[in-house]
Design brief:
With 266 residues, the chain is α+β, with helices and mostly antiparallel strands. It has five helices and 17 strands. The chain has three domains: 74 residues, no CATH class; 46 residues, no CATH class; 124 residues, no CATH class. α5 links the parallel β15 and β16.
Length: 266
């Protein structure tokens, strides 16, 4: 769960326009996809049309977009299309890779030594929409301080960083994942998380979160706990002069956004 890494002024509008995502000077992205980009996460699957690359014309291409720092420090757009077959990283055994691809396992945490000889703790996952193996540097992943106004213990924060399910007193269950644009899954449609960033508290309000793997949302998923309501009041009190950041997705169909989200600090 990382805060905003880029500003809107960092967006490579020329590249986005070439991809058909800028019309009449306006970015044609849902607010939740824009929030994912600015936070360094992947968007949902987006259909790009009438593309040209290396002299070839592409009528339609489904991709996930991601912003990354380029060699010159400027933000660059990566396109993640749906590959025919995933290529497993060398750090995974054949058995582990097959378990991720089949869905038998959700993730694997491993201690590795990267190509630069640096030791890392990495979480490996498999994105079935793009057929890609994903890896997250766990030492750089920020766990929330609070969720629904409940402080997380150090053990719970470590579980979150490892991609394991964290359960709160109000019955909320959530886990980190790099496969969704929100960067998490939960048994609730809505939750509010707060993280410490740059010496202040950033609030993240999510609505329309995808269900935990192997589960579906039900009537209980729609319920907002007392802790959620307390967190919402606290956030509004601290940001009375600013709009509340809200991600609204429509589960079961194309995602729809009502408000453009922003991370706010106290």
């Amino acid at each position: 769960m990382n805060p905003q890494r880029f500003d809107e002024t960092d967006l490579p509008l020329g590249d986005l326009a070439a991809a058909g995502l800028v019309q009449d000077g306006r970015l044609q992205l849902e607010a939740a996809d824009l929030e994912a980009l600015l936070s360094g996460r992947r968007t949902q699957m987006i259909t790009l049309e009438n593309l040209e690359s290396a002299g070839m014309k592409i009528a339609s291409l489904k991709v996930k977009l991601q912003l990354v720092p380029g060699a010159d420090g400027k933000a660059e757009i990566l396109l993640h299309p749906a590959y025919r077959q995933g290529v497993a990283p060398r750090y995974l055994s054949d058995t582990e890779a097959e378990a991720l691809e089949s869905g038998e396992e959700i993730s694997f945490e491993k201690a590795i030594v990267d190509g630069n000889g640096q030791p890392k703790r990495v979480l490996f996952e498999f994105d079935k929409e793009t057929n890609q193996f994903l890896q997250t540097d766990l030492d750089r992943l920020i766990a929330p301080e609070k969720v629904n106004n409940e402080s997380l213990s150090e053990e719970q924060k470590e579980r979150f960083r490892k991609g394991l399910t964290v359960e709160l007193k109000d019955g909320t269950k959530l886990r980190y994942t790099a496969t969704t644009r929100e960067g998490l899954r939960a048994n609730r449609i809505s939750l509010i998380a707060s993280i410490i960033f740059d010496g202040g508290i950033s609030y993240l309000l999510f609505h329309g979160i995808k269900a935990l793997s192997g589960q579906r949302h039900n009537g209980e998923s729609l319920q907002q706990s007392a802790g959620y309501q307390d967190a919402l009041r606290e956030m509004e009190q601290n940001q009375a002069d600013r709009p509340v950041p809200q991600l609204k997705l429509v589960s079961g169909g194309p995602d729809d956004e009502e408000l453009q989200p922003r991370n706010r600090r106290r």
